[in-house]
From TrEMBL:
Domain of life: Eukaryota
Lineage: Eukaryota, Fungi, Dikarya, Ascomycota, Pezizomycotina
Pfam families noted in UniProt: DUF7907
Protein's organism: Plenodomus tracheiphilus IPT5
Limits of the DUF7907 domain: 29-207
InterPro entries membership: DUF7907
Keyword vocabulary terms for this entry: Signal
Signal peptide, first to last residue: 1-20
Protein name per Swiss-Prot or TrEMBL: DUF7907 domain-containing protein
């Protein structure tokens, strides 16, 4: 019953915000850094924002070296935007929202948000920062400040069945090629199992407030 009431409240809020000029994701967190760590400690780095196109950045590992980033870089400063109209489906799950970052230009500051860039032949997707928030990927931070995606549809049964919400953690640090740039990036695994990319290492993504 809680799941049904959550969906109803979300639909009601969406209708209400559509009838106003107020942005939906209207609650901004304090600034923070993101850190990725593997279970064995081999991966331990903050996340940076690495250029992959005009007003586009990937979430690269700051401490990594690659062809497109031969030297370590700085940790990026992020915010997390949620909405007064949203709520967590379960108390420990965290309120869904969007990950944001400010692009500082020569004479402008532009807010960017993360979307997922899909390639049909890949089993991983890349979180990419782009200006605005027209196509964001919904994310959440649990009570341990770990980044996750919340799922609702059970696809391991037939037919696929809606059920209770779950937290999913399928983050990897991978050497990737995107728009002619080679970085060690944060990636999301589609489905279960290990990625085809042999460089990928499973990681947790945790925020630390500044």
């Amino acid at each position: 019953m809680k799941t049904n009431s959550f969906i109803f409240s979300l639909a009601t809020a969406t209708l209400a915000i559509a009838q106003s000029d107020e942005p939906y994701y209207n609650v901004t967190s304090k600034p923070f850094n993101l850190f990725v760590t593997s279970e064995d400690g081999a991966v331990n780095s903050s996340l940076g924002a690495c250029h992959v196109g005009a007003a586009l950045e990937s979430l690269c590992l700051s401490a990594s070296n690659s062809i497109s980033k031969p030297d370590p870089g700085d940790a990026a400063v992020f915010n997390f935007n949620t909405s007064i109209y949203s709520q967590a489906p379960e108390p420990t799950f965290g309120v869904p929202g969007i990950l944001t970052w400010i692009l500082h230009g020569f004479d402008f500051n532009a807010s960017s948000s993360v979307y997922f860039s899909y390639v049909p032949t890949d089993d991983i997707v890349l979180p990419i920062l782009q200006a605005g928030s027209s196509n964001p990927q919904l994310l959440a931070f649990d009570t341990q400040d770990k980044l996750n995606i919340q799922g609702f549809i059970g696809r391991t049964v037939q037919p696929p069945t809606p059920g209770t919400y779950s937290e999913i953690y399928r983050w990897y640090a991978c050497q990737t090629y995107f728009a002619s740039y080679l970085y060690v990036n944060l990636a999301w695994k589609l489905g279960t199992g290990k990625p085809e990319n042999p460089s990928c290492v499973a990681v947790n993504v945790t925020r630390t407030f500044i």
